[in-house]
Amino acid sequence: MKMIVDFEECLKDSPRFRASLEDVEGDVSELEIKLDKLVKLCIGMIDAGKAFCAANKQFMNGIRDLAQYSSKDSVIESSLTKFADSLQEMIQYHAMLFDQAQRSIKTQLQTFVKEDLKKFKDSKKQFDKVSEEKETALVKNAQAQRPKQHEVEEATNILVATRKCFRHIALDYVLQINVLQSKRRSEILKSMLSFMYAHLTFFHQGYDLFSELEPYMKDLGVQLDNLVGDAAKEKRVMEIKHSTIQQKDFADDDPKLDCNVDTTSGIVMEGYLFKRASNAFKTWNRKKPDHTRRWFSIQNNQLVYQKKFKDNPTVVVEDLRLCTVKQCEDIERRFCFEVVSPTKSCILQADSDKLRQAWINAVQTSIATAYREKGDEAEKSEKKPSVSITSPLSEAKENLVKGESALQRVQCIPGNTSCCDCGLSDPCWASINLGITLCIECSGIHRSLGVHFSKVRSLTLDTWEPELLKLMCELGNDVVNSIYEAGVEKMGVKKPQHGCQRQEKEAYIRAKYVEKKFVDKHSESLLVVFKRSPSVRNKDDHLSVADKGLQSEPLTRMPSSSSVKSNDSGIQFSADCSQEGLAGTASCNSLFDQDGEKKVEKRDSSVFQESNVKKLLPGPRLYQASYEGNLPGMAEALAHGAEVNWVNTKENNGTPLIQAVRGSSLVTCEFLLQNGASVNNCDIKGRGPLHHATLLGHTGQVCLFLKRGANQHASDEDGKDPLTIAIETANADIVTLLRLARMNEEMRESEGLYGQPGDETYQDIFRDFSHMASNNPEKLNRFHQSDSPKS
């Protein structure tokens, strides 16, 4: 309850004023008790929350241990690992909630009690003291006798001075009371509002996490239903087989019950036999018969045996073609037969006469088969079959031309068939901003780094846009590891493998991508510059990674003293460089004149042919690589600390994303956007990437920027928005896209559907344009290079 004390009543020092003071002081005292109690309860809640998080972590460790124990069952292992990763994130969200509670409730209210309430108490002490002094002065003044003029004047002066002091301190006290009454409302509400926002954030984070997990859970639920059905079927089959076997007459000596034949693994026959010792005594072990009973098998043209399944087989006969087999009737034991080779003989005993005959027949059949197979191999060796050699590059190209799934297309890139961080084969997850494939465990670790470091997607469960899929096919694990693990061997760091502890993998991945410890910051590597004509660059926008492999190479590391060289693909390298990259930005990156006109011919003649090009710093390096469409160079620049929204003040405040638009590469724009590039940053003329894409007639880029939230209402220094420019340049496709996007935006605003993608027609049209821009960009090219408008 807010109580305001009147200043006029304070000067009068009336009974109403004193009563108001008593009410306020009692209210403040009770407020202090309530706040202290709330702070103590908050501390107890935080301590209980920390204990809850600790118990939850132990529970997560139990789930991970169960997942590792179930490593032979991929479904259980992957599911438990994914669930453990998700629940681990929930634990982190809980910890963040309790931390916010400590800051908003405990710390903020304690500060209010210790500071503001303390000031109130100090003011109250001063007021009480001066109030007593005033009362004393009044009493003395009243007691002063009229004849004693000296005492009367002294009492009067003291009373006047004391009354003035009382009024000043009383007014200060009342001010402190009123300020406290006003402030306590804001402090309490501010702390509680902060705490409630922390709850809102917590539940939003949990909802987003489990919304992403929901498709996987539904798919797993379908698999679980199938597994339950399959288990019931297997149970019925086992019951039928059990009943059938019970009905058999076990008295009948059936060799099939005591020996096995597995033609798929090359085993002709296997089963238990007794073996007579091969020492000088040639005896059977009568005291312990199991010491001479072994599991024999005929496989790979050899007779071998083993005592336990895990033991390495002992070879009795290395080549059955050199031996013979016969029955042994001249020894005291029954059912014996002998396998004789040029160097030794082995006497074996079966459990029955039928089993002995089955073994003899199996050995004889194996001998005949071995002779026949050797003869066939000799005939084949006389012929010279033609060998077809297919390069991996051509295979990748053929695979990309076909309509495979995202998993198949991405895994055909060199190095993508194993996890980028631990080497586990057949990874099904990817980091879309890094361009790498990951196993499920490493993907969980990447997810914990945050989306500003790694954006994780499933190659099997998520839907892939064509430009994003094309981006994944432009980099790959080999290229990215050559950048982020360049200094691993030099530093003596051991890369974790599949099966290592999660903590070890997490430490390595964090050091690799967050701290970038293994990036070779002192290398002499240079930006690879592609010398291509404008027409080649436009065509390159729709080439697959297999096609580009013949035109470009990853960043090549060269000594600093080497001069400019050119390889067969037209790529030039320069390495006589210094650290003055920022100073050389204007000369090395002057792709456009002051009016925005492209200077391709000047660039080829001046910059590309120079033998002393200055080495670029990360920001300018990213800027130049973005124009050239050199994704490995861009990835290396970002790894060296380049700011993705770096501004080139010497070229009209251009950004790497604007350079990517000028370079005509759709996948380069997508790479920058996935790595945090702002789609609305403008140059000095007020033109953003959408303006430049519209000016150049790059329909695919316009479609991409609209999907990524570009502001189509922004105007440049001439007052023109992208739609106005598209109408002036008469580009029907871009006008259609811009008008459709604007109409969809107006519909969503009128219906209050904020954050919704739009109706199905809008999505279908943009989906068609995206596929055309990524797979058949020549259909969208409305301008030739020579006819491009000024940018």
Automatic annotation (TrEMBL):
CDD domains: ArfGap_ACAP2, BAR_ACAP2, PH_ACAP
This protein's UniProt keywords: ANK repeat, Cell membrane, Coiled coil, Endosome, GTPase activation, Membrane, Metal-binding, Repeat, Zinc, Zinc-finger
The UniProt record lists the keyword Metal-binding: yes
Protein known as: Arf-GAP with coiled-coil, ANK repeat and PH domain-containing protein
Entries under Pfam families matching the protein: Ank_2, ArfGap, BAR_3, PH
Lineage, top ranks: Eukaryota, Metazoa, Chordata, Craniata, Vertebrata
Job of this protein: GTPase-activating protein for the ADP ribosylation factor family.
GO cellular component annotations of the record: endosome membrane; plasma membrane
Region (Disordered): 539-569
PROSITE patterns on file: ANK_REP_REGION, ANK_REPEAT, ARFGAP, PH_DOMAIN
Compartments, as annotated in UniProt: Cell membrane; Endosome membrane
Keyword Zinc attached: yes
Activity regulation details: GAP activity stimulated by phosphatidylinositol 4,5-bisphosphate (PIP2) and phosphatidic acid.
Entry text on domains: The BAR domain mediates homodimerization, it can neither bind membrane nor impart curvature, but instead requires the neighboring PH domain to achieve these functions.
